[in-house]
Design goal:
By secondary structure, this protein is α+β, with helices and mostly antiparallel strands. Helices cover 30% and strands 25% of the residues. The chain has 19 helices and 24 strands. The chain is globular, with a radius of gyration of 23 Å.
């Protein structure tokens, strides 16, 4: 089991050395340039760059360290205010992006959460030590099968499913959410199956073209599968180049570029190192065209970040909000242990936000909230009572209560019933109109998290500079972290080239409809 942990946890979760490719193959790639031809309809390439942020992006461009991104920016439209999903964790964001729905509909609550029906903690990869305690096999099964085929609600449709119904083809490269209508077989590397109880194959449903590291690839000569089992940027870019060179790029392609996230977590939000590295990969893609400008012919490029990151205080004792310590009077479910009759609460920390679950009738959700309200590092605490969401804060008197429907409207034309102290979520009101300040689209995003799962639970959100930890949570003191609803974690850049078609609402949850409208 130790060997398996090293293979999966380190290979998948930790960036290793640069992938080893075949030089002859790389030379062949350079020679095989694309011949541009006119097409009847444009093709859309969506590049999702994990933790791409406005300030380091602009800095890298100004210092001429990101010529590919500078090229796209020069030839496109730009905004730094695309609103992410909530929690601002990749799996939830990916779910909103690909389904056009918040977690109340997609049912993907976060990177780690407690399944009230199964009475177990689910993780999609929140740090090596947490995975070790919860079980590597269960984690692998979640990623390989459960996530797309079970957990993602059947009541929402992915962009791949909608495109299939429109008789359009699509591709997914290294994106963990990819559900579609085509049957695929994911093959687990033999090195892993030999030392584990994982099956050799997983059956899954995806788009017509699916690439996911060493588990499934289109280019059999793509040798970038050593580093993180192919779940790396070099692998992803080689797959995109292959589709372009073979002229098999479908109407829609989503490509996930992940490694910048690891760099920002370690070095902090100001670093440009990750951007400089990923830009070299984008240069590889542009270089296969006779001229970079040819890449824009009949191709619409959409480049987005998924979440921002905010700096975490260097001093661990101050930076890390230890929820086990704060709630030490309660009996807390241990990671990897079955629920016992004496257990009272479950803690699942998602970096700068956390879910705290009541699993014993003797516990009061309000009492837990009241206890957490005394910690000055926590921005606010929320829970639900019937159809109403209640929010309190240590910085403000009283409470704020809201639910969907009512006489108040926000800039997204969403109607709400609200009462109480609006300062808690930094809302301002004018003539029945709601304006968001520190928490963009705060009501819909918080409602989405509160309705994402069953049971009684609390949502806690940290102030900038602080991060929650549970039993074995990863921590990023001195670096960067995300997860919260605050604008520092929530506003990301977007670059769009090749079209003047406006996006009605600058939210990740709205991009699916905007893309599908190209073929309506």
């Amino acid at each position: 089991m130790t060997r398996l942990l090293l293979i999966i946890s380190i290979s998948i979760l930790v960036i290793g050395c640069t992938s080893c490719g075949n030089k002859a193959d790389e030379q062949e790639m350079k020679v095989s340039v694309i011949q541009t031809e006119s097409q009847s309809s444009p093709k859309i390439i969506l590049l999702v760059i994990d933790s791409l942020m406005n300030e380091p992006l602009k800095k890298a461009i100004q210092e001429k360290k990101a010529p590919a991104l500078a090229f796209f920016l020069k030839h496109g439209q730009y905004s730094k205010n695309l609103v992410s999903s909530y929690p601002t964790m990749s799996v939830t964001i990916d779910s909103s992006l690909i389904t056009g729905a918040y977690p109340d509909q997609s049912k993907i609550p976060g990177l780690v959460w407690f399944d009230n029906n199964e009475k177990q903690i689910n993780t999609y990869g929140n740090g090596m030590f947490e995975i070790m305690k919860l079980g590597v096999s269960g984690f692998a099964d979640n990623i390989m099968h459960q996530y797309n085929n079970v957990d993602l609600s059947p009541n929402v449709r992915s962009i791949h499913e909608d495109l299939y119904n429109m008789k359009k083809d699509s591709a997914s490269i290294n994106a963990f959410i990819y559900r579609g209508n085509y049957h695929h077989t994911l093959k687990v590397p033999k090195l892993i199956t030999k030392v584990s109880n994982l099956p050799e194959e997983y059956e899954t449903l995806g788009p017509k073209i699916l690439s996911l590291g060493a588990f499934i690839r289109q280019n059999t000569k793509n040798n970038h599968i050593v580093n993180r089992i192919g779940l790396n940027d070099a692998f992803a870019v080689q797959e995109l180049k292959y589709l372009l060179e073979k002229n098999i790029l479908p109407e829609f392609t989503i490509l996930y570029i992940s490694e910048n996230d690891f760099t920002v977590h370690r070095k902090g939000p100001d670093t440009t190192k990750g951007i400089e590295k990923l830009d070299k990969h984008l240069q590889e893609v542009l270089n296969i065209f006779p001229k970079w400008e040819d890449a824009l012919n009949n191709n619409i490029w959409v480049i987005i970040g998924d979440s921002n990151q905010s700096s975490v205080n260097e001093r661990k004792k101050e930076a890390l909000i230890d929820l086990q310590e704060n709630l030490s009077k309660y009996r807390i479910l241990k990671l990897g242990k079955p629920v016992s009759k004496d257990d009272e609460i479950v803690i699942t920390a998602n970096e700068r936000m956390a879910y705290i679950y009541k699993i014993n009738e003797s516990v009061s959700v309000k009492n837990i909230a009241g206890k957490l309200q005394t910690d000055p590092r926590i921005a606010w605490i929320a829970w639900k009572e019937k159809e109403m969401i209640h929010v309190i804060s240590g910085d403000h008197k009283g409470s704020f209560i809201f639910k969907p429907g009512g006489t108040y409207k926000d800039i997204y034309n969403q109607a709400w019933t609200i009462k109480g102290n609006t300062s808690i979520l930094d809302l301002s009101l004018k003539d029945k109109n709601i304006h968001y300040e520190d928490y963009p689209d705060g009501l819909a995003r918080l409602y989405g998290a509160m309705q994402s799962q069953e049971g009684e639970f609390i949502v806690v959100d940290a102030k900038p500079g602080f991060e929650f930890i549970g039993e074995s949570s990863p921590e990023h003191s001195g670096g960067g972290a995300h997860g919260s609803m605050h604008k520092e974690d929530s506003l990301v850049p977007i670059i769009v080239t090749g079209t003047n078609k406006s996006i009605d609402q600058l939210r990740i949850v709205d991009l699916k409809k905007w893309i599908l409208d190209f073929w309506n």
